[in-house]
Amino acid sequence: MGDLDFVQRQQLALDKGRLIHPQYQQEFEKAFSVCWHKTEHSLGGWALYTAATRQSSYAALQRADKQVYFAGEHMTYLNARMAGAFESARKTVAELHARVTGQRVAYAGI
Ligand SMILES: Cc1cc2nc3c(=O)[nH]c(=O)nc-3n(C[C@H](O)[C@H](O)[C@H](O)COP(=O)(O)OP(=O)(O)OC[C@H]3O[C@@H](n4cnc5c(N)ncnc54)[C@H](O)[C@@H]3O)c2cc1C
User: Fold this and answer.
1) Is residue 45 part of a domain?
2) Ligand 1, from 38, 46, 61: best to mutate by most atoms within 8 Å of Cβ?
3) In this predicted model, what pLDDT tens digit does every residue of 4-23 receive, in sequence order?
4) Which residue in 11, 53, 59, 85 has the fewest CB atoms around it within 10 Å?
């Protein structure tokens, strides 16, 4: 769908939606769509890993570099979910807390 222009995408959505709700076209007012993987500075709606990049990039990003930590849905297996962002935030805060207080507290990352 990302290769379609906006009008074509809207029409496709209406055509498919009408298969489920026949009144779709009559009730339609406005549409909005974003092609995330073609959006500058974003290049995607969420993180995608392969089995190989889970072992390389993902594993490396999990480790803090001095005071630099990464947190977000991209740092979990719950990609494309707000739950991933929350889990990652809790894990990162637990790691920071453990570092500055000298505790050995671990949060089970997912
Ligand atoms: C179309 C779409 C539909 C979705 N639907 C759902 C859904 O139904 N249910 C669900 O659970 N999840 C959904 N998600 C996923 C969910 O929105 C994300 O997983 C979640 O918002 C990720 O949170 P985050 O904190 O990791 O990252 P983000 O919310 O992306 O936050 C990152 C923040 O960092 C900022 N930033 C980036 N670079 C810099 C910089 N250099 N300096 C300062 N700030 C910077 C950005 O502006 C942004 O505010 C959807 C996502 C998309 C795109």
Assistant:
1) no
2) 46
3) 999 999 999 999 999 999 99
4) 59
E strand or H helix at 99, and its extent? helix 82-101
Residue 43 domain flag: no
| pLDDT recorded at residue 104 | 73
Q: Which residues contact 71 (CB under 8 A, 6 or more apart)?
A: 85, 88, 89, 91, 92
pTM of the model: 0.79
Residue that the structure tokens 């005071």 belong to: 67
Which residues constitute the domain of residue 85? Answer: 51-101
Q: What is the DSSP string of 50-81?
A: -HHHIIIIIHHHHS-BTTB---SGGGSS-TTS
Residue of minimum CA distance from atom 46 in ligand 1: 42
Is 108 strand, coil or helix?
A: coil
Q: What number does the ligand 1 atom closest to the CA of 72 have? A: 26
**Which atom of ligand 1 lies at the shortest distance from residue 34's CA?**
1
Q: How many domains does the chain have?
A: 2
Q: Are residues 33 and 67 in the same domain?
A: no
